[in-house]
Design brief:
about 40% helix, mainly alpha, globular, 7 helices, three-stranded antiparallel sheet, single chain, Arc Repressor Mutant, subunit A
């Protein structure tokens, strides 16, 4: 019996919803273990039920998961553009793998998600589920690590940004 491990990371808009969506795609009979690390942000002023220690333990944080973002309406995409921020990735995540693939496909840029999946399958030691690739692409775009544009067939095309190159230099190759 073979085993695999998939890491997911979410931040930005509605990370809990996106995490729940990806969890629902897994078959309960093949999942042996789920590790959830939740990082929250709280106001500096504790309420009557919260101690100062509780507030310090849970500040300046992110949630870790990944999800297939699916297609979005043009209006939502404009709102999403406004929500983008300069974000980071962690070593050992699907985000690192997908960003590394895009960097290696830079000579073909911009590239479709299917080409990114194909490159990972042919050049990396791990396979990523389609939803994991799309979830990573969505998160990388939100973090301004990649840019995207629509092609003539209305498919998203992706290419790495300078910030994305810098992040890969920081975390290294997967």
């Amino acid at each position: 019996m073979s085993h695999g491990k998939t890491s997911h990371e979410f931040s930005g808009a509605k990370p809990k919803e996106r995490a729940m969506a990806i969890l629902s795609t897994y078959d309960e009979e093949v999942v042996d273990k789920i590790r959830i690390e939740i990082e929250e942000s709280f106001d500096d002023i504790p309420n009557e039920n919260t101690t100062e220690e509780d507030t310090e333990d849970k500040s300046d944080t992110e949630e870790f998961f990944e999800v297939d973002s699916g297609s979005e309406e043009e209006e939502e995409e404009e709102e999403e553009e406004e929500e983008r921020y300069l974000g980071e990735i962690s070593s050992g995540t699907n985000h690192q793998t997908v960003l590394y693939a895009i960097q290696n496909l830079d000579h073909e840029a911009p590239v479709e998600a299917s080409r990114i999946e194909e490159w990972i399958s042919n050049n990396m030691d791990k396979e990523l589920k389609r939803g994991s690739v799309f979830g990573s692409l969505h998160d990388l775009y939100e973090r301004r690590l990649i840019d995207r544009e629509k092609n003539d067939q209305n498919n998203n095309m992706y290419q790495i940004t300078v910030h994305g190159d810098d992040q890969l230099q920081t975390v290294g190759e997967p």
